[in-house]
Design goal:
- There is one protein chain.
- The chain starts with a helix and ends with a helix.
- α2 packs across α3.
- The longest helix has about 35 residues.
- A two-stranded antiparallel ribbon has the order 1-2.
- The protein contains 4 helices and 2 strands.
- The protein is mainly α.
Length: about 130
């Protein structure tokens, strides 16, 4: 059990796991912001443009069952807007990274002089070839 705890601790402290946890928390908060934007601003505006339709109230009655397809339409709009925003953010980040990297070729590392042993071995090799 002690080995398991040590392995879990090493796993949980790795940078990638911490980065992933931060991304999930930020992504959740970002999702709430975008959902609020869609639910409170964009969807009512679209509803007004379409003659005052409230998507969340759209449903179809079959016997005693109610099929609320307006919630589904709302979810599709949420998805499309979140996808668009994420696309724009990723595109902006990629563009900023590309601007940060200039087309400067990497400086060539100076060639180190081989050690005396390597030079001697090369001379022996060359002598044997003759």
């Amino acid at each position: 059990m002690k080995n398991f705890a040590a392995e879990f601790k090493a796993f949980a402290i790795k940078g990638n796991v911490v980065d992933l946890a931060v991304a999930v928390v930020i992504g959740t908060a970002f999702g709430k912001i975008v959902s609020s934007l869609v639910a409170n601003i964009i969807t009512p505006a679209i509803g007004l443009l379409m003659g005052g339709i409230d998507f969340s109230g759209l449903s179809y009655e079959v016997d005693n069952a109610s099929i609320s397809y307006g919630v589904f339409v709302q979810s599709i709009i949420d998805f499309l807007i979140i996808s668009l925003v994420i696309f724009i953010v990723v595109k902006s980040i990629n563009k900023a990274q590309a601007l940060g990297k200039k087309d400067v070729p990497p400086a060539e590392a100076p060639v180190a002089k081989p050690s005396e042993e390597v030079q001697l071995l090369r001379e022996i090799r060359d002598g044997l070839r003759r």
